[in-house]
Amino acid sequence: MMTLPMAAATAFFFLALLVAVSTVLAAIVEHTFVVRQMHMQHLCKDTLVTVVNGQFPGPAVEATEGDTVVVHVINQSPYGITIHWHGVKQRLTCWADGAGMITQCPIQPNTAFTYRFTVAGQEGTLWWHAHVASLRATLHGILIIRPKSGSYPFQKPHMDVPIIIGEWWQKDLTEVEKGYLNSNDNDPAAAAINGKLGDLYNCSGVVENSYVLEVERGKTYMLRLVNAALFSEYYYKVAGHRFTVVGVDANYVKPYDTDVLAIAPGETMDVLMVADAPPCRYNMVALSIQAPAPDPQIQTFVSRGLVRYKNVAVNRTRVCSEQALTPKMPDRHDTATTFFFHGNLTGSLPPGHQSLLRQVRDRVDERLFITLGQGSICKGGNQEGSCKRGGSNESMLVAYMNNVSFHLSEKTVSLLEARWHRRNTTTINVTVEELPGRPARVFNFTDLALIPLIPGGKGEELEPTRKATTVRRFAHNATVEVVFQSTAALQSDSNPMHVHGHDFFVLAQGKGNYDAARDVGRYNLVDPPMKNTVQVPRLGWAAIRFVADNPGMWFMHCHFEYHIATGMATVFQVDDGPTLDTTLPPPPLDLPKCSHIKE
Ligand SMILES: *[C@@H]1O[C@H](CO)[C@@H](O)[C@H](O)[C@H]1NC(C)=O
Ligand SMILES: *[C@@H]1O[C@H](CO)[C@@H](O)[C@H](O)[C@H]1NC(C)=O
Ligand SMILES: *[C@@H]1O[C@H](CO)[C@@H](O)[C@H](O)[C@H]1NC(C)=O
Ligand SMILES: *[C@@H]1O[C@H](CO)[C@@H](O)[C@H](O)[C@H]1NC(C)=O
Ligand SMILES: *[C@@H]1O[C@H](CO)[C@@H](O)[C@H](O)[C@H]1NC(C)=O
Ligand SMILES: *[C@@H]1O[C@H](CO)[C@@H](O)[C@H](O)[C@H]1NC(C)=O
Ligand SMILES: *[C@@H]1O[C@H](CO)[C@@H](O)[C@H](O)[C@H]1NC(C)=O
Ligand SMILES: *[C@@H]1O[C@H](CO)[C@@H](O)[C@H](O)[C@H]1NC(C)=O
Ligand SMILES: *[C@@H]1O[C@H](CO)[C@@H](O)[C@H](O)[C@H]1NC(C)=O
Ligand SMILES: [Cu+2]
């Protein structure tokens, strides 16, 4: 037992050597991220925002598959910061995952930390974002991984075009985060495409700038979409053009032709668009989607940008209308279009991933059924005591998985450090519970009568819940199946569920209550898409499987900020494997310490 850390250290030494030898041909992509507050003007208002290198969105990280990425984060903001590399598998580098208090303490103000990891075995679009409080609304950027061979499984596009759908906030984001627990008004001021609000927003007659994409007729553009919004899934269209989806979450899919894209928070997408329309001007529109009433309704957010053809014909006015063409968008309450969009994607796996697919097809070691919903806890000390519910101010709403709302009480050490150090000491004592593998109580999860949060409502009886730090532990190389069930408990949102450190196969999705006897037969075990974020449909379910082969403590959560902040989360603990190259190395020496730990 005592020798474990030594073995790990030795393993790390040899691994480092191996990596040094095998990466002779791989490059190092190095960035310095200075996190700082800055004033920005939008909608006639000066707003203090926290950004990287003075940019919103932040700088793009562009790498080639197999490269090592090194990012020096220098924190000159007043907040503790972590940066999560969303979708990067972080094989044996859980320490660099950047999940606040899960894998590391935040980088304290006026200190620095260097993230080091490789981007291997994945190609396409990912992104990075702060993973503490709501600061990711302004602290994010794209992460592009291009194929090492230079060739794609489709014709090489003329140009890459990042399309980052985000939001503009005028409120203090750290206050917004606290407000979730007090149900304050927490809406963004606008939607944005690549940081531009677009010409649908104005104040005092001054129109906001739009994102403009200049295209050449006949060329093919690869739109690299990221949904960086805190709250909303979006529909995205470009008037007069169609798309071919070729990748999701940095995994190739079989080409899928469509004129509308649906992208949930945390999802990324690679999409080909041929500039084959008459050489005019075409609006692109990103429209927020929301569950219909009786779910609480917020304002709709629309951001508009422009596709403009170069070398427009001199006689343009005869060919083109005066106004740029605008796409006809789905209704903002249309949850069917996104359901079918996601359901129609099938994977196109590289040979290296076939053995994973074989393993999830042949063997399931752990089966979890996880309900996603809302409940309430009593305000004050005794959370499980008796208090008025149904929207009373004596209780507050929280989100949960299987009726437990994730809550970190430990403020001095991350869960990964606690696990690491417990190998040889008992002084670090973090109390965790096992996440239940299924709900203790079965009810009609998708009964619409459960939605309204009103005194005496049908949902009131099911409402009491509790908070805990939950973890689910998996043996190395276990095949895990998770069925997520979106419920109608006090709301009926969809839930974009994100797993850190592993991609998973999305085997099936459906409407209503999951029924294994009926639904297992519908699993796609032939060409399922591989993802890191699955959009679990509103009043429906989604089934995923993955191989737990990356040792560490991996956050697993809904990517709607309100849900993650109020507890729709847990941690997957993956054990070390039997060999040195399946064992997590020791923490980097400069891993941040929590400010209030006395050394
Ligand atoms: C236990 O861990 C500490 C660091 O956390 C290390 O300094 C010490 O040498 C370890 N003890 C043994 C017996 O491995
Ligand atoms: C400004 O915005 C308002 C509503 O937000 C809209 O009615 C008006 O047409 C806009 N004006 C311009 C010049 O875009
Ligand atoms: C006007 O533009 C169209 C399409 O670009 C072209 O076919 C046509 O010849 C042009 N007409 C004149 C008079 O230039
Ligand atoms: C694919 O989309 C069509 C409608 O566009 C729908 O009828 C079909 O059921 C979808 N397939 C899946 C597997 O979701
Ligand atoms: C709850 O609301 C009632 C009346 O609306 C008010 O009298 C009471 O002080 C509030 N209690 C708390 C704990 O905010
Ligand atoms: C560890 O936690 C247990 C259970 O909460 C508690 O009884 C024990 O005193 C704790 N030990 C330390 C060293 O904090
Ligand atoms: C569950 O609720 C839905 C919606 O209210 C209803 O259509 C369905 O019949 C119910 N299912 C069962 C098994 O009661
Ligand atoms: C959740 O657990 C609480 C106890 O903590 C219980 O009162 C409640 O009925 C449970 N609700 C559901 C939906 O399981
Ligand atoms: C994982 O299990 C599969 C069999 O299901 C086996 O072929 C493979 O070698 C195992 N991998 C490791 C790293 O243990
Ligand atoms: Cu959610």
TrEMBL record:
Quote the InterPro entries the UniProt record gives. Answer: Cu-oxidase-like_N (IPR011707), Cu-oxidase_2nd (IPR001117), Cu-oxidase_C (IPR011706), Cu-oxidase_fam (IPR045087), Cu_oxidase_CS (IPR033138), Cu_oxidase_Cu_BS (IPR002355), Cupredoxin (IPR008972), CuRO_1_LCC (IPR034288)
> Its encoding gene is what?
LOC100830831
- The residues the entry assigns to the signal sequence are 1-26
Task: Report the protein name in the record.
Answer: laccase
**What's any one GO cellular component for it?**
apoplast
- Please explain the role this protein plays, according to its UniProt record: Lignin degradation and detoxification of lignin-derived products.
Q: Which reaction does it catalyse?
A: 4 hydroquinone + O2 = 4 benzosemiquinone + 2 H2O
Task: Answer yes or no on keyword Repeat.
Answer: yes
What organism does the UniProt record list as the source?
A: Brachypodium distachyon
Give all residue intervals belonging to the Plastocyanin-like domain.
36-149, 160-300, 464-576
* Annotated keywords: Apoplast, Copper, Lignin degradation, Metal-binding, Oxidoreductase, Repeat, Secreted, Signal
Q: Which domain of life is it from?
A: Eukaryota
